[in-house]
Specification:
The chain is mostly helical and about 325 residues long. The chain has one domain (about 1-325). Helices cover about 65% and strands about 5% of the residues. The protein is built from 14 helices and 3 strands. The protein has helices at about 25-30, 35-45, 50-70, 75-95, 105, 110-125, 125-135, 135-160, 170, 175-195, 210-225, 230-250, 260-280, 300-325, and strands at about 1-5, 10-15, 20-25. A 3-stranded antiparallel sheet has the order 1-2-3, covered by helices on one side. A hairpin with a 5-residue loop joins strand 2 (about 10-15) and strand 3 (about 20-25). Helix 4 (about 75-95) runs antiparallel to helix 10 (about 175-195) and helix 8 crosses helix 10. The longest helix has 28 residues, at about 135-160. The chain starts with a strand and ends with a helix. The relative contact order is 0.16.
Length: about 325
């Protein structure tokens, strides 16, 4: 079943069978209370708009920056600018590309909250050593925080792009544009930082998290775009029986609206990021919070990045030895 929000109605497509236009009812839009899906749904939509998520996300970004990229010779300004680029660079770039207000300049709280997280990690004596000691617990939690922050930015950014007053009639049908914009909005900052920080990994595949973001963005774009309804029906025919059989266990609603789809995307992204944390070999050595810079606008680059440097150093040593001989 695939449901698309259109003003005060939803379009319900049941497989097989024609589409029907039905009125929206509160019971139809809300997942069953007390289930894992409803807890995730309520947690995301209550927690993400608050001030706590930016602070926690800023702590996640600063933690990974300090652990893997910050050097003693970096100045205070250099660390602050790198932090803001990684955390907010993708959202800022996507807003500029689509002539939308830049959140960093239109919010009175965003910059102070992200600076707070940075200062806590770099200038609080006990916090960074404590998180490092608790990394087996902290880094999976950091991956979930990262997934919540990126999902919120990704979905709301695409919603604003499709609803833009001047070009909404064009953006709604621009599937490729929506996909590219969504990926840029939550990965560009980290990619720019990685490619500019070292020539070793420049213009290469960004890492495991980038693939996860691409997959989730494709799911969200396909959900909203009417031209992909045939693909959605084909996929629904394959997964539909599984959803009907096991979806009720976790509380997945039969009719999925925009809010529920945002929750599904967050769950998919969190599972993908956690896979990188717990299986770094599968993730190409650069997935998850253990091997990447985490944050809105970032992508996998930590362990993979270190491997690339070691390979380049090994090649340099071999060339030097050959010249000596």
């Amino acid at each position: 079943m695939r449901v698309l929000m259109r003003d005060t109605t939803i379009r319900t497509t049941t497989l097989p069978g024609p589409s029907k236009i039905l009125p929206v009812h509160d019971k139809m839009l809300k997942p069953a209370p007390g289930t894992p899906f409803s807890i995730l749904h309520d947690g995301l939509h209550d927690f993400a708009p608050s001030w706590q998520l930016p602070v926690l996300h800023s702590i996640v970004v600063a933690y990974n920056m300090r652990k893997r990229f910050t050097k003693p010779e970096h100045t205070f300004i250099q660390k602050i600018l790198a932090h803001l680029l990684v955390a907010l660079g993708g959202g800022t770039l996507s807003a500029l590309l689509t002539a939308r207000p830049v959140p960093l300049f239109t919010s009175n709280t965003l910059l102070p909250l992200y600076l707070t997280g940075h200062l806590l990690i770099h200038y609080t004596p006990f916090l960074f050593p404590l998180l490092t000691a608790l990394s087996p617990l902290w880094e999976p939690l950091a991956a979930i925080i990262d997934a919540a922050s990126r999902t919120w930015a990704l979905t709301h950014g695409l919603d604003a792009f499709r609803a833009h007053v001047q070009y909404a009639h064009l953006s709604r049908d621009a599937i490729v544009g929506q996909f590219a914009l969504g990926v840029v909005s939550v990965t560009a900052g980290g990619i720019i930082y990685k490619w500019s920080a070292s020539p070793v990994g420049r213009y290469t595949w960004p890492g495991w998290d980038f693939g996860v973001v691409c997959f989730v963005t494709g799911v969200y774009v396909a959900y909203w775009d009417s031209s992909t309804l045939g693909v959605g029906k084909a996929a629904g025919g394959w997964v539909g029986p599984w959803v009907r059989e096991y979806g009720g266990v976790v509380g997945l609603p039969y009719s999925v609206t925009g809010a529920e789809m945002r929750t599904v995307c967050m769950a998919l992204m969190a599972v993908g990021f956690l896979a990188g944390v717990w299986a770094p070999v599968v993730a190409g050595g650069g997935g998850g919070a253990t091997g990447r810079t985490v944050g809105r606008g970032t992508t996998g680059q930590g362990g993979w990045y270190a491997q690339q440097q070691q390979q380049q150093q090994g090649k340099g040593k071999k060339k030097g030895d050959a010249k000596k001989e």
